[in-house]
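Action item from last meeting closed. Structure (233 res):
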Protein backbone atom coordinates (compact mmCIF):
# COMPACT_ATOMS: atom_id res chain seq x y z
CA UNK A 1 0.00 0.00 0.00
CA UNK A 2 1.87 3.11 -1.20
CA UNK A 3 2.40 6.15 1.00
CA UNK A 4 -0.48 8.59 0.52
CA UNK A 5 -2.28 11.31 2.41
CA UNK A 6 -0.98 11.59 5.98
CA UNK A 7 0.96 8.29 5.78
CA UNK A 8 4.66 8.78 6.66
CA UNK A 9 5.67 5.38 5.27
CA UNK A 10 4.21 2.74 2.97
CA UNK A 11 2.33 -0.28 4.35
CA UNK A 12 2.90 -3.95 3.59
CA UNK A 13 0.28 -6.70 3.98
CA UNK A 14 1.27 -10.38 4.19
CA UNK A 15 -1.78 -12.33 2.96
CA UNK A 16 -3.23 -14.49 0.23
CA UNK A 17 -5.80 -12.90 -2.11
CA UNK A 18 -8.59 -14.59 -0.11
CA UNK A 19 -7.24 -13.27 3.22
CA UNK A 20 -6.76 -9.81 1.72
CA UNK A 21 -10.40 -9.66 0.62
CA UNK A 22 -11.57 -10.64 4.11
CA UNK A 23 -9.36 -8.01 5.77
CA UNK A 24 -10.99 -5.35 3.59
CA UNK A 25 -14.45 -5.93 5.08
CA UNK A 26 -13.82 -3.96 8.28
CA UNK A 27 -11.53 -1.10 9.40
CA UNK A 28 -8.32 -3.17 9.20
CA UNK A 29 -6.74 -1.28 6.28
CA UNK A 30 -7.79 2.11 7.63
CA UNK A 31 -6.14 1.25 10.94
CA UNK A 32 -3.01 0.14 9.08
CA UNK A 33 -2.87 3.50 7.30
CA UNK A 34 -3.25 5.21 10.67
CA UNK A 35 -0.24 3.24 11.98
CA UNK A 36 1.75 4.33 8.92
CA UNK A 37 0.88 7.94 9.84
CA UNK A 38 2.26 7.85 13.39
CA UNK A 39 5.28 10.04 14.30
CA UNK A 40 8.67 8.36 14.32
CA UNK A 41 7.65 5.22 12.39
CA UNK A 42 10.53 3.57 10.53
CA UNK A 43 10.53 1.15 7.60
CA UNK A 44 6.97 0.13 6.79
CA UNK A 45 3.74 -0.44 8.69
CA UNK A 46 3.18 -4.20 8.36
CA UNK A 47 0.15 -6.46 8.70
CA UNK A 48 0.49 -10.19 9.32
CA UNK A 49 -1.84 -12.91 7.93
CA UNK A 50 -3.98 -12.88 11.12
CA UNK A 51 -4.90 -9.26 10.40
CA UNK A 52 -8.29 -7.97 11.53
CA UNK A 53 -9.75 -4.90 13.20
CA UNK A 54 -8.24 -3.90 16.55
CA UNK A 55 -8.50 -0.88 18.89
CA UNK A 56 -5.93 1.38 17.26
CA UNK A 57 -3.49 -0.83 15.38
CA UNK A 58 -5.14 -3.66 13.49
CA UNK A 59 -4.65 -7.06 15.12
CA UNK A 60 -1.54 -8.49 13.43
CA UNK A 61 -0.12 -5.00 12.99
CA UNK A 62 3.65 -4.59 13.37
CA UNK A 63 5.57 -1.31 13.44
CA UNK A 64 8.82 0.10 14.84
CA UNK A 65 9.36 3.64 16.08
CA UNK A 66 12.51 5.70 16.53
CA UNK A 67 12.51 7.50 19.92
CA UNK A 68 15.00 10.03 18.56
CA UNK A 69 12.48 11.02 15.89
CA UNK A 70 9.58 11.61 18.29
CA UNK A 71 8.39 8.02 18.08
CA UNK A 72 5.28 6.99 20.02
CA UNK A 73 4.87 4.58 22.94
CA UNK A 74 1.33 3.25 23.37
CA UNK A 75 -0.10 1.06 26.17
CA UNK A 76 -2.90 -0.10 23.88
CA UNK A 77 -1.81 0.08 20.27
CA UNK A 78 -3.34 -3.23 19.20
CA UNK A 79 -5.39 -3.84 22.34
CA UNK A 80 -5.21 -3.74 26.10
CA UNK A 81 -4.07 -7.28 26.91
CA UNK A 82 -0.48 -6.95 28.19
CA UNK A 83 1.66 -9.98 27.28
CA UNK A 84 -1.03 -11.42 25.02
CA UNK A 85 0.49 -14.12 22.85
CA UNK A 86 0.42 -17.63 21.44
CA UNK A 87 2.34 -20.62 22.80
CA UNK A 88 2.75 -24.07 21.25
CA UNK A 89 3.16 -27.20 23.36
CA UNK A 90 4.69 -30.08 21.41
CA UNK A 91 3.70 -33.64 22.37
CA UNK A 92 5.02 -37.09 21.51
CA UNK A 93 1.46 -38.36 20.99
CA UNK A 94 0.34 -39.17 17.47
CA UNK A 95 -2.75 -37.49 16.09
CA UNK A 96 -4.37 -40.93 15.78
CA UNK A 97 -3.84 -41.64 19.48
CA UNK A 98 -5.33 -38.29 20.45
CA UNK A 99 -8.34 -38.54 18.12
CA UNK A 100 -9.33 -41.81 19.82
CA UNK A 101 -9.77 -39.91 23.10
CA UNK A 102 -10.62 -36.45 21.84
CA UNK A 103 -14.01 -36.11 23.55
CA UNK A 104 -12.87 -36.84 27.14
CA UNK A 105 -9.72 -34.79 26.48
CA UNK A 106 -11.71 -31.72 25.40
CA UNK A 107 -14.06 -32.19 28.38
CA UNK A 108 -11.05 -32.17 30.72
CA UNK A 109 -9.65 -29.04 29.08
CA UNK A 110 -12.97 -27.23 29.60
CA UNK A 111 -13.06 -28.42 33.21
CA UNK A 112 -9.50 -27.43 34.08
CA UNK A 113 -9.03 -24.29 31.97
CA UNK A 114 -12.02 -21.96 32.58
CA UNK A 115 -12.93 -19.88 29.53
CA UNK A 116 -15.36 -17.15 28.55
CA UNK A 117 -16.22 -13.67 29.80
CA UNK A 118 -16.06 -13.44 33.59
CA UNK A 119 -14.49 -16.87 33.98
CA UNK A 120 -12.70 -17.54 37.28
CA UNK A 121 -9.86 -19.97 37.86
CA UNK A 122 -9.41 -22.69 40.44
CA UNK A 123 -6.08 -21.17 41.47
CA UNK A 124 -6.55 -18.88 44.44
CA UNK A 125 -3.84 -16.34 45.20
CA UNK A 126 -3.55 -13.57 47.79
CA UNK A 127 -2.64 -9.97 46.97
CA UNK A 128 0.87 -10.65 48.24
CA UNK A 129 1.16 -13.70 45.97
CA UNK A 130 -0.14 -11.68 43.03
CA UNK A 131 2.55 -9.04 43.62
CA UNK A 132 5.17 -11.78 43.80
CA UNK A 133 3.86 -13.49 40.65
CA UNK A 134 3.94 -10.36 38.51
CA UNK A 135 7.36 -9.37 39.86
CA UNK A 136 9.14 -12.74 39.69
CA UNK A 137 7.28 -14.00 36.63
CA UNK A 138 8.04 -17.51 35.50
CA UNK A 139 10.17 -18.32 38.57
CA UNK A 140 7.02 -17.95 40.69
CA UNK A 141 5.10 -20.23 38.32
CA UNK A 142 7.82 -22.90 38.33
CA UNK A 143 8.03 -22.96 42.14
CA UNK A 144 4.23 -23.24 42.30
CA UNK A 145 4.38 -26.30 40.03
CA UNK A 146 3.07 -24.65 36.86
CA UNK A 147 6.19 -24.79 34.74
CA UNK A 148 9.70 -26.21 34.29
CA UNK A 149 13.21 -24.81 33.99
CA UNK A 150 13.08 -25.75 30.30
CA UNK A 151 10.08 -23.41 29.93
CA UNK A 152 12.15 -20.57 31.34
CA UNK A 153 14.96 -21.20 28.86
CA UNK A 154 12.45 -20.90 26.02
CA UNK A 155 10.75 -17.71 27.22
CA UNK A 156 11.67 -14.18 26.21
CA UNK A 157 13.82 -12.37 28.81
CA UNK A 158 13.85 -15.51 30.96
CA UNK A 159 10.18 -15.12 31.82
CA UNK A 160 10.36 -11.85 33.71
CA UNK A 161 11.22 -8.18 33.16
CA UNK A 162 13.57 -6.24 35.38
CA UNK A 163 12.15 -3.24 37.20
CA UNK A 164 8.61 -4.53 37.71
CA UNK A 165 7.00 -2.48 40.50
CA UNK A 166 3.69 -3.90 41.80
CA UNK A 167 3.21 -0.84 44.04
CA UNK A 168 2.47 1.13 40.84
CA UNK A 169 -0.49 -1.14 40.07
CA UNK A 170 -3.88 0.00 41.36
CA UNK A 171 -6.00 -1.98 43.80
CA UNK A 172 -8.75 -2.15 41.18
CA UNK A 173 -6.41 -3.87 38.73
CA UNK A 174 -5.29 -6.36 41.37
CA UNK A 175 -8.87 -7.17 42.36
CA UNK A 176 -9.71 -7.83 38.71
CA UNK A 177 -6.66 -10.04 38.31
CA UNK A 178 -6.93 -12.15 41.46
CA UNK A 179 -9.70 -14.53 40.31
CA UNK A 180 -8.40 -14.81 36.74
CA UNK A 181 -5.23 -16.84 37.29
CA UNK A 182 -5.40 -20.06 35.29
CA UNK A 183 -8.17 -18.91 32.94
CA UNK A 184 -8.05 -18.45 29.19
CA UNK A 185 -10.65 -15.68 28.90
CA UNK A 186 -12.79 -14.87 25.88
CA UNK A 187 -12.61 -13.07 22.55
CA UNK A 188 -9.99 -14.68 20.32
CA UNK A 189 -8.27 -16.54 23.19
CA UNK A 190 -8.29 -20.32 22.92
CA UNK A 191 -6.79 -23.68 23.87
CA UNK A 192 -6.70 -25.82 20.74
CA UNK A 193 -5.54 -29.37 20.01
CA UNK A 194 -3.91 -29.40 16.60
CA UNK A 195 -2.63 -31.94 14.08
CA UNK A 196 0.80 -31.40 12.49
CA UNK A 197 0.09 -32.24 8.84
CA UNK A 198 3.17 -30.90 7.10
CA UNK A 199 6.67 -29.75 8.11
CA UNK A 200 7.87 -26.73 6.13
CA UNK A 201 11.26 -26.21 7.86
CA UNK A 202 12.58 -29.58 9.14
CA UNK A 203 15.60 -28.17 11.03
CA UNK A 204 13.47 -25.63 12.90
CA UNK A 205 10.71 -28.18 13.60
CA UNK A 206 13.26 -30.61 15.05
CA UNK A 207 14.56 -27.98 17.47
CA UNK A 208 11.00 -27.29 18.64
CA UNK A 209 10.20 -31.01 18.96
CA UNK A 210 7.44 -30.78 16.35
CA UNK A 211 6.88 -33.86 14.17
CA UNK A 212 4.51 -34.55 11.29
CA UNK A 213 1.65 -36.77 12.40
CA UNK A 214 1.88 -35.68 16.02
CA UNK A 215 -0.62 -33.71 18.08
CA UNK A 216 0.29 -30.33 19.55
CA UNK A 217 -1.56 -27.91 21.81
CA UNK A 218 -1.74 -24.21 20.97
CA UNK A 219 -2.69 -21.68 23.66
CA UNK A 220 -3.64 -18.05 23.04
CA UNK A 221 -4.02 -16.01 26.22
CA UNK A 222 -2.84 -12.88 28.02
CA UNK A 223 -3.25 -10.87 31.21
CA UNK A 224 -7.04 -10.52 30.90
CA UNK A 225 -8.78 -7.90 33.09
CA UNK A 226 -5.61 -7.33 35.10
CA UNK A 227 -3.60 -6.09 32.13
CA UNK A 228 -6.58 -4.23 30.68
CA UNK A 229 -7.03 -2.29 33.93
CA UNK A 230 -3.31 -1.50 34.15
CA UNK A 231 -3.48 0.03 30.64
CA UNK A 232 -6.69 1.91 31.51
CA UNK A 233 -5.06 3.35 34.63
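Sequence:
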Amino acid sequence: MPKEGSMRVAARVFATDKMFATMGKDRTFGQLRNVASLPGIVGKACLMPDGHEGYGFPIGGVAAFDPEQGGVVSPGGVGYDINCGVRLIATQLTSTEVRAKIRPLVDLLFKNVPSGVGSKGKLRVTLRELDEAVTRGIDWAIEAGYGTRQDKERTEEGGRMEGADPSAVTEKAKKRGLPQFGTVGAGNHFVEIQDVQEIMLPEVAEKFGVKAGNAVVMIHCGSRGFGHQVCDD
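Note appended to the action item: The CA atoms of residues 9 and 60 lie 18 Å apart.
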